[in-house]
């Protein structure tokens, strides 16, 4: 009988501590989502970061270099991917 009472009290205290945690965590999560950083305006056609700008340049160069290959060929896509990777590595980027 004593075990049943002890188990009952343990279960009650666990539920109580879980509800306390939820009462703390949920409002903190709501506040954190409201306190997000200010949104920045970006142009839809302009790259957002220097890395994006470099990627656009590498893609342009790769497309120019593979223009003579068939437009939908897998060989062209592979060659463009290789050229883009080489270009980005030459600019100091790593994957």
Question: What can you see in these coordinates?
Answer:
With 95 residues, the protein is mainly α. It has a domain at 50-91. The protein has three helices and no strands. Helix 2 crosses helix 3. The longest helix has 33 residues, at 2-34. The termini are far apart. The model has no long low-confidence stretch (mean pLDDT 77).
How far is the first residue's CA from the last residue's CA? 63 Å
Residue ranges: pLDDT <50 for 5 or more in a row? none
Shape: elongated
**Estimated structural class:** mainly alpha
Instruction: Tell me the Rg in angstroms.
Output: 28 Å
Work out the helicity level. 55-70%
Number of strands: 0
How much strand?
Answer: under 5%
Count of helical regions: 3
* Helix-strand sequence: HHH
Largest sheet: none
Mean pLDDT equals 77
Question: What would you say about this model in short?
Answer:
With 95 residues, the chain is mostly helical. It is 69% helix and 0% strand.
Topology:
Elements: H1 2-34, H2 50-65, H3 74-90
Helix pairs in contact: 2-3
Features:
3 helices, 95 residues, mainly alpha
């Amino acid at each position: 009988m004593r075990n049943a009472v002890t188990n009952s009290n343990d279960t009650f205290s666990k539920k109580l501590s879980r509800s306390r945690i939820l009462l703390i965590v949920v409002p903190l999560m709501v506040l954190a989502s409201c306190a997000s950083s200010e949104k920045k305006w970006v142009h839809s056609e302009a790259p957002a970061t220097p890395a994006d700008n470099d990627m656009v340049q590498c893609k342009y160069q790769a497309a120019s270099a593979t223009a003579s290959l068939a437009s939908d060929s897998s060989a062209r896509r592979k060659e463009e991917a290789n050229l883009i990777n080489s270009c980005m590595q030459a600019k100091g980027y790593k994957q």
